Structures are given as structure tokens and as C-alpha cells.
Amino acid sequence: MARGTIAGEQPRWLTDTEQRAWRSYLRGGHLVMEALDRDLTPYGISLSEYEIISMLSEEPQRRMRMSELAQIVVQSRSRLTHTANRLADRGWVTREPCPDDRRGVLLVLTSDGFAMVEMLAPVHLASVRANLLDLLTPDQFEALGSAMEVLRRHHTGEGDGPMPGGRAG
Predict the structure, then answer these.
(1) The model's pTM
(2) Cα separation of 30 and 40, whole Å?
(3) Which residues make Cβ contacts (< 8 Å) with residue 101, sequence separation at least 6?
(4) How many CB atoms lie within 10 A of CB 69?
(5) What does the alpha-carbon distance between residue 132 and residue 36 come to, in Å, rounded to a whole number?
(6) For residue range 99-132, what is the model confidence (pLDDT) as tens digits?
(7) ∠ CA 149-5-154 to the nearest 5 degrees?
(8) How many CA within 13 A on the CB side of residue 67?
(9) Which SS3 state, helix, strand or coil, does residue 34 take?
(10) CA–CA separation, 133 and 128 (whole Å)
């Protein structure tokens, strides 16, 4: 049963305005992600692969527990494992046992992986600007970020309290 409905209660259908906004969100989101992925394709890497090596590049010692990384990049552990296998086959990451937990596994960015991030970062940045940032006003982009933060907090269980300057999230 969907959250916010009671058995036998009529659904709260979307208004025309809500329906237009919802469909714009779906289509726009898909199109932006496809464009970002497409701009990395000539370099033999997908957006999800780039996101992983990019996140690792920002970590101290360029390593992170795979379970934590899966949460950050919003992938199942199984999907992250498959992606990590592809990255390892290219020599961009390795796996190491977690020193403080025998069951944990660290994903470690190699020097070749870091070189790939350094090469691709300007390409990805240009794509983000061309496909998102430069199409919105600064206020629109800030509002988008605020809205996504409310959703992130809700879906990660980080709180339903009010967001600063906004509605309850």
C-alpha cells in the first residue's frame, strides 16, 4: 500500500499542474542523465563508472568500503560489485580486505584510475554545465538542489524535520 493512503480511500490524483511538473521531472531527469552518460561514452566509460572512481578520488587514501560507496552512488551492492569488476578489469580499482572488519571490502582507486579521473573531470564538468547548470538560472539551480536534498534526506532516513528556508523534508 502506498504511503499516505488508507485501504478503501480514494487516491489523491495529481492536479494538471502537478502532473505536468511530475512528467517534466521524469523526462528531464532521464534526458540529463542520458546526456551526461553519452558525453563519457567516447572515453569508454559510463556515468555510473565515472561516479564511482570520482567518489574514490575524493576520499583520503582513495579508498572506501564498498557498502558505504553503494549507498553514496545509490546502487545495490550487487550492481556495485559488477561495476567494480569492470573497473578492476581496466586496472582502475582494486579490492582490499577491510582491516577493522573481516567481512568488509574496500574499493581502492589505482594510480591509473586516478589518472582517468583527472583526464575525465574537465569533460564531465563541461557536460554538467552544458546539460544542466547553464540551462538554469542560479536561483533555479539552487532550488533544484534544495528540493533534491529534501528527497535525499527523506529516502536515506536522515530526518523529516524542516529544511532551512523551506518546507518540512
Answers:
(1) 0.84
(2) 16
(3) none
(4) 23
(5) 9
(6) 888 788 999 999 999 999 999 999 999 999 999 9
(7) 15
(8) 6
(9) helix
(10) 6
